[in-house]
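Appendix B, Record 12. Input sequence as logged:
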Amino acid sequence: MNKDQAKGRVKEVKGKVKEVAGKITGNKRLEREGKIQNSVGKVQAGYGDLKEDIKKAS
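Logged structural output:
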């Protein structure tokens, strides 16, 4: 696992926690922040996965 994969997965988890907390408390801003952070984490993890795949193919 490379740095981008790890950081991306952490951002995904943090985003999901914020999203759920926002839903529970009715805080739409926190919920939106969580969704955005979750998406950013997925992109970063995907980038890390791609780097890993390229490294393995070489």
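The chain has one domain: 3-57.
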